[in-house]
């Protein structure tokens, strides 16, 4: 097995996940495609944590590009240089784990708290804050949020997407930690000949 090919595959998988995290986080700023709620500050505080942009996005790009570059010649043709590069990829993977973890925590808290919305008493508040996330299972209560229209669906959908994407990123980075350690200890490729075929 070629550890460099595995790392490259992981890196190529992380890039679209990071882009999707950034897009999902940006969409949270525009409920129903409207900008006025962001301008007026009527968005959940967890939207402002930029967990999808920073954690699931930019902090994932770094390890992704490191993993993709592991198979390139710039790391050196000698086995020792490639083994050291594989071991250093573990550090990049740990950065990815931190980023995806931050994204997952932000998304989970956003889901548990619920959206900031205008309720029937004409007040902007976290209507579902005291439900402990149980509102997610009872769609009949979602109508308590009057404005923005479909705020609950918007938040639940996008925070769920962020949670799922960051979970995938976390798993891929964890796999690269194992792959990088094996590649560093056992050699970049299993045989000398395979080293140049990677």
TrEMBL record:
A Pfam entry, by short name = L6_membrane
- List localization entries: Membrane
Q: How does it sit in the membrane?
A: Multi-pass membrane protein
Transmembrane regions:
12-31, 46-70, 90-112, 156-175
Chief location of this protein?
membrane
Q: Which UniProt keywords apply?
A: Membrane, Transmembrane, Transmembrane helix
Cellular component GO terms, alphabetical: membrane
Family in the record: Belongs to the L6 tetraspanin family.
Name this protein carries in UniProt: Transmembrane 4 L six family member 1
In which organism is this protein found?
Molossus molossus (Pallas' mastiff bat)
């Amino acid at each position: 097995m070629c550890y460099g090919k595995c790392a490259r595959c992981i890196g190529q998988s992380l890039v679209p996940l990071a882009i999707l995290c950034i897009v999902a986080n940006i969409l949270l700023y525009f409920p129903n495609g409207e900008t006025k709620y962001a301008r007026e500050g009527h968005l959940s505080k967890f939207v402002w944590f930029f967990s999808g942009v920073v954690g699931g996005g930019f902090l994932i790009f770094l390890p992704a590009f490191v993993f993709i570059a592991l198979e390139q010649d710039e790391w050196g043709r000698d086995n020792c240089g490639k083994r050291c590069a594989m071991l250093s990829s573990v550090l990049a993977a740990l950065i990815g784990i931190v980023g995806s973890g931050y994204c997952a925590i932000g998304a989970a808290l956003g889901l548990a708290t619920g959206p900031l919305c205008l309720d029937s008493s004409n007040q902007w508040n976290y209507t579902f804050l005291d439900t402990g996330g149980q509102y997610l299972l009872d769609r009949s209560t979602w109508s308590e949020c009057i404005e923005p229209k479909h705020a609950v669906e918007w938040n639940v959908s996008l925070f769920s997407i962020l949670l799922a994407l960051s979970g995938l990123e976390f798993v891929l980075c964890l796999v690269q930690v194992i792959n990088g350690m094996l590649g560093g200890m056992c050699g970049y490729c299993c045989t000398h000949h395979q080293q140049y075929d990677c």
